């Protein structure tokens, strides 16, 4: 029986949403093949993968894989791939996926379709090019079907409560690691994962200083969203570069993107233009961001954002 291999990603012991989306993407592309998920390192919730559509779950139980390193994960996955001999491999187009997928493709002498946002029968993969200004459709005529998916674009399957299966332990040999993770120091940013958030409130240079970002935190909290930023805001040290959205930062596609005090430079637009609904708040009616916004509010963001926060808070209480 043919199979597609999904590489699961975890964050603090829980699977990232993109892992469940990758299982759904694998089913779309697999043409009836079984879906096998592989978990590297700790596997506290491995059974959950069955609830989201995985037919089989493999667990590589090695504490050297608890934290991602290119060497360790590459060695482990190549050995798993040799054992499973899959027809396809799917990863999230995350920091890990972007890093390791080209390495695996090179070692496997395989093609790679990266940053897939939709899949049609065939399979036909759609991916953005030219910083999101255009899209191309890609098919794989021969060999391994190897692709990564952009988070928050391909919906996961509905969770099937009670679905279960047997998690199979797989042995690999990890040798000669040049990098060893001894301690993980968490970044000061917290809350909803920016790359997977359905709502993002992003600030630009118009925020004026670091302290003013607190009003964005409050709005994002009410909307159960994440806070992002333009490169200009990061360069001005208003916030950490981990929040940067744009061509040289994170590429996001939330259901709602609220751009606050952001002019709309092309580098920033490249990272968020595919958001489903864009709301722009800027005091300059000629700001470029209004050209791509679905809704625009011209005015003082320091008056508008607190009022929006209060109205959303009232709506949340009455709903």
Automatic annotation (TrEMBL):
Residues bound to FAD: 205, 230-231, 244-248, 261-268, 282
Cofactor section: FAD
Keyword Transferase found: no
Record note on cofactor: Binds 1 FAD per dimer.
Domain Electron transfer flavoprotein alpha/beta-subunit N-terminal: 4-189
SMART domains, A to Z: ETF
Name recorded for this polypeptide: Electron transfer flavoprotein subunit alpha
């Amino acid at each position: 029986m043919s199979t597609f291999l999904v590489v699961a990603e975890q964050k603090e012991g829980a699977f990232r949403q993109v892992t469940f989306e990758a299982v759904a993407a694998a089913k779309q592309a697999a043409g009836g093949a079984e879906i096998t998920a592989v978990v590297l390192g700790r596997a506290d919730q491995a059974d959950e993968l069955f609830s989201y559509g995985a037919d089989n779950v493999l667990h590589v139980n090695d504490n050297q894989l608890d934290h991602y390193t290119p060497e360790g994960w590459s060695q482990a996955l190549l050995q798993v791939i040799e054992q499973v001999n899959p027809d396809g491999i799917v990863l999230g187009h995350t920091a890990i996926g972007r890093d390791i997928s080209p390495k695996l493709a090179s070692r496997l002498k395989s093609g790679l379709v990266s940053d897939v946002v939709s899949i049609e029968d065939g399979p036909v993969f759609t991916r953005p090019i030219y910083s999101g200004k255009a899209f191309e459709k890609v098919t794989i005529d021969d060999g391994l079907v190897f692709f990564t998916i952009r988070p928050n674009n391909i919906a996961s399957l509905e969770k099937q409560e009670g679905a279960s299966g047997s998690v199979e332990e797989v042995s690999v040999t990890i040798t000669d690691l040049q990098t060893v993770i001894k301690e993980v120091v968490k970044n000061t940013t917290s809350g909803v994962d920016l790359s997977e958030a359905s709502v993002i409130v992003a600030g630009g240079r118009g925020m004026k200083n670091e302290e003013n970002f607190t009003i964005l935190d409050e709005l994002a909290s009410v909307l159960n969203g994440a806070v992002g930023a333009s490169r200009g805001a990061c360069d001005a040290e208003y916030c950490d570069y981990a929040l940067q959205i744009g061509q040289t930062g994170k590429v996001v596609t939330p259901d709602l993107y609220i751009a606050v005090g952001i002019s709309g430079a092309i580098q920033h637009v490249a990272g968020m233009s595919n958001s489903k609904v864009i709301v722009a708040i800027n005091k300059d009616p000629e700001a470029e961001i209004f050209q791509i916004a679905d809704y625009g509010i011209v005015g003082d963001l320091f008056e508008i954002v607190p009022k929006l926060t209060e109205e959303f808070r009232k709506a949340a209480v009455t709903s």
